[in-house]
Amino acid sequence: MSAGVSLITGLGALVVIAVSIPTLVGGVLGVCLLAAGFFRQSRLLVDGGGAAFVGGLMFAGLAGMAPSLVLIAAVLTVIAWDVGRTALGIAAEVSDPSATIRIELVHAVSSIVVFTAGATIGYAVFVRTLGQGSVWALAALLAGAFALLIALGS
């Protein structure tokens, strides 16, 4: 179940960042690596998919994509990566997939709520303090969100 959520949010991120060839390559590579990671049960491939999406996000920001769209794609990317890693962790711990549906659903919904709320609050502060905002401020916001994610994952 979580693998499906991860792939759907990854496809959503791909659709949002597909504004140029480099961003499209990053998004397609991200989705392919996510799918390969689930097929081979490899966290390294799922991490590679997340990294490919981040590369696509960076190119999207540099290409002048609206900060709000970059933030939406970043939220979708983080959800895809987080839910995907959790899916692999749960699958490694529990052999019966039907026994994990409830915990996977709770984790997926809570991740979506937390990351969306955090991005919404961060973007509201971003727009309020900077007016139109800048790409560098958005990059700093995204770096802070990823740092928080890593800290919470530890």
Describe the structure.
The chain is 86% helix and 0% strand. The protein has 154 residues and is an all-alpha fold.
Question: Any descriptors?
Answer:
154 residues; mainly alpha; 6 helices; 0% strand
**Computed Rg:** 15 Å
The H/E string reads: HHHHHH
Show unreliable segments.
none
What is the beta-strand fraction? under 5%
Task: Determine the N-to-C terminus distance.
Answer: 24 Å
Instruction: Name the assembly state.
Output: single chain
Class inferred from helices and paired strands? mainly alpha
- Mean of residue pLDDT values: 84
Q: Report the strand count.
A: 0
State the helical fraction.
over 70%
Global morphology: globular
Helix count equals 6
Main sheet makeup = none
Describe the structure concisely for a colleague.
This protein is an all-alpha fold.
Map the helices and strands.
Blueprint: H1 2-17, H2 21-40, H3 43-62, H4 67-93, H5 101-130, H6 135-153
